[in-house]
């Protein structure tokens, strides 16, 4: 049997005594932001550049007569034109990537037959203006085959393997974090990235590369969420949204930095090494990063929790020091939590289902900011649905495969397009802080999702207008979806109790990742009606916003420690009856007074604190 709210240690009260957001928490949170924002964004998105397919045409050898022709003249003579499906505002043509005029070499002379068009016979020429090397240009040499044309599914499959790894990894990482500790799970992920991420840069064939990316993918998005869980469990309730805002803002800035680094390196091997090596360096912080004291208390490891809180009190220059808890005053805890525990009780079951559905709309907003030639699924989409590249800029791809925006028809390369997409994260994250503090979690989440869904539906009517209209809608939609993503992560962390928080977030992430894999098939099934995917995704986003109204408000509510405590808390919470809980000065004062009165009556906490 788990402990009830009346007997549980009020950890928020303890934090008030040792400092709920002092120098110690700020120092630790800066360190935690490195894996959560910097390393996770680099690991997730560096592979997009590594798997990019440079512009290419068929290679046709020259003879002594044509040796003096310019490259453009030779392409005009040997490569046919085809329609450019990447633009639909006006008809354009481009050199074929996979076809050439039939040629024969007779007596060292090239004979060109323009009446016959065949597949590339002699290989490919690559444009190195944007990328020096990628897995397309390097691994194909060793395999004696090129990863383009009818083999161009391999780069996309390597990115898909990353997501499939996340399906398995997030479930097990959540279980490890709740059973063995957040710290162990965090550093285990960093070790996996440092080993398999670096090893993938030395892969000599595409099969090995795909297998290594599977193991690297097993750490994402848990690597983003777990440090944040440690952060909110180490800080006071009034700082949770601020922490989430800071982590998400740093995530966007880190992605922008990655685009800059990738544009300088232009070599996939160097890029994967640079983005994976920091994980190995970060392992030295094992002796600095603490275990979550809230989790330690839940597991009755009082001595370790006391040591961490004593250290925090000293750093924060608080007069009170922390001693040991009298174990006889603590109720016994039950068996280790599992995923099934999320569905055993009615209130937590409702929260799990709702959070999972909403996360499936939002959680992969950070996964792919892709252009047509570097998208994880663009190989499939280009075959199945020519309009998909433009459409995917304004939809949540199964409202789930992430907004993969770029700036339409602007003369920018892949690095600049992705950097601009990532830059939208920064103001979107920053605006959530005052929004949530003034209107609450539920109101803010619902509003941003409804607005994002409305923008998605509006794309049906404006998609064929000027490209700058489409670009403006994309920017506004991306802004709204990014803001809701920032809110739902903090919201979910507050809703799940401590004993199953990592499992709950991991479960929601696993179910959400399924959409990344199934999204292209939904696009395929609706390809006959061009507006139908937009309608489906807009409706899904709006429905997620409406369902968010069923969630309890968690502002100024202490984190539940156990499943039973969460049941009692959400059953009696009066905040669930109001849509937007507006902040008033008197209301703030009342909350502080009530909290102080409640704290003074908590005898368990008073025994924990030694004056």
Automatic annotation (TrEMBL):
GO terms for molecular function: transmembrane transporter activity. Keywords: Membrane, Transmembrane, Transmembrane helix. GO terms for cellular component: membrane. Residues 118-556 form the Major facilitator superfamily (MFS) profile domain. The chain crosses the membrane at residues 27-52, 153-173, 185-204, 210-229, 241-265, 271-289, 445-465, 471-492, 504-525, 531-551. It holds the Pfam family MFS_1. The keyword Transport does not apply. It is found in: Membrane. It is a multi-pass membrane protein. CDD domains: MFS_SLC22. This is Putative transporter, major facilitator family protein. It comes from Trichinella nativa.
């Amino acid at each position: 049997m788990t402990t009830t709210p009346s007997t549980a240690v009020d950890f928020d009260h303890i934090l008030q005594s040792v400092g709920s957001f002092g120098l110690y928490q700020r120092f630790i949170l800066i360190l935690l932001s490195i894996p959560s924002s910097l390393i996770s964004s680099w690991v997730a998105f560096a592979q997009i550049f590594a798997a990019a397919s440079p512009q290419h045409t068929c290679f046709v050898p020259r003879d002594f007569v044509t040796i003096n022709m310019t490259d453009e003249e030779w392409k005009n003579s040997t490569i046919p034109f085809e329609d450019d499906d990447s633009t639909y505002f006006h008809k354009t043509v481009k050199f074929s990537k996979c076809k050439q005029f039939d040629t024969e070499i007779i007596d060292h002379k090239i004979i060109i037959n323009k009446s016959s068009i065949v597949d590339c016979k002699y290989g490919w020429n690559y444009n190195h203006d944007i990328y020096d090397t990628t897995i397309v240009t390097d691994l194909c040499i060793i395999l004696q085959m090129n990863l383009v044309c009818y083999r161009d599914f391999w780069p996309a499959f390597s990115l898909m393997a990353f997501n499939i790894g996340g399906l398995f990894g997030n479930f097990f990482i959540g279980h490890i974090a709740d059973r063995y500790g957040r710290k162990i799970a965090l550093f285990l992920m960093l070790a996996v990235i440092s080993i398999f991420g670096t090893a993938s840069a030395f892969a000599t064939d595409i099969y090995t590369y795909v297998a290594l990316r599977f193991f690297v993918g097993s750490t994402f998005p848990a690597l983003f969420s777990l440090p944040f869980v440690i952060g909110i469990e180490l800080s006071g309730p009034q700082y949770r949204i601020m922490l989430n805002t800071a982590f998400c803002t740093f995530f966007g800035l880190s992605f922008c930095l990655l685009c800059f680094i990738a544009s300088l390196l232009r070599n996939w091997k160097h890029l994967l090494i640079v983005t994976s090596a920091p994980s190995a360096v970060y392992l030295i912080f094992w002796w600095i990063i603490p275990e979550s004291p809230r989790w330690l208390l839940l597991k009755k490891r009082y001595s370790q929790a006391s040591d961490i809180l004593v250290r925090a009190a000293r750093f924060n220059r608080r007069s009170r020091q922390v001693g040991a808890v009298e174990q006889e005053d603590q109720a016994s805890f039950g068996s280790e939590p599992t995923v099934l525990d999320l569905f055993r009780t009615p209130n937590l079951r409702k929260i799990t289902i709702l959070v999972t559905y909403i996360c499936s709309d939002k959680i992969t907003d950070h996964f792919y900011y892709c252009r047509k030639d570097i998208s994880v699924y663009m190989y499939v989409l280009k075959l199945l649905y020519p309009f998909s590249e433009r459409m995917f800029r304004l939809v949540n791809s199964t409202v789930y495969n992430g907004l993969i925006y770029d700036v339409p028809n602007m003369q920018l390369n892949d690095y600049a397009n992705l950097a601009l997409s990532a830059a939208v994260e920064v103001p979107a994250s920053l605006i959530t802080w005052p929004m949530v503090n003034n209107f609450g979690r539920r109101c803010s989440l619902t509003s941003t999702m409804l607005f994002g869904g409305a923008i998605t539906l509006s794309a049906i009517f404006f998609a064929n207008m000027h490209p700058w209209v489409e670009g403006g809608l994309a920017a506004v939609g991306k802004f709204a979806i990014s803001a809701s993503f920032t809110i739902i992560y903090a919201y979910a962390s507050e809703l799940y109790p401590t004993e199953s928080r990592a499992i709950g977030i991991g479960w929601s992430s696993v179910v959400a990742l399924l959409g990344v894999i199934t999204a292209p098939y939904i696009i395929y099934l609706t390809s006959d009606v061009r507006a139908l995917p937009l309608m489906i995704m807009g409706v899904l986003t709006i429905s997620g916003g409406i369902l968010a109204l069923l969630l309890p408000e968690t502002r100024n509510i202490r984190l539940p420690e156990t499943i039973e405590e969460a049941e009692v808390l959400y059953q009696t919470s009066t905040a669930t009856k109001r849509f937007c809980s507006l902040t008033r000065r008197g209301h703030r004062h009342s909350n502080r007074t009530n909290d102080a009165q409640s704290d003074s009556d908590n005898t368990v906490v008073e025994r924990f604190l030694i004056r």
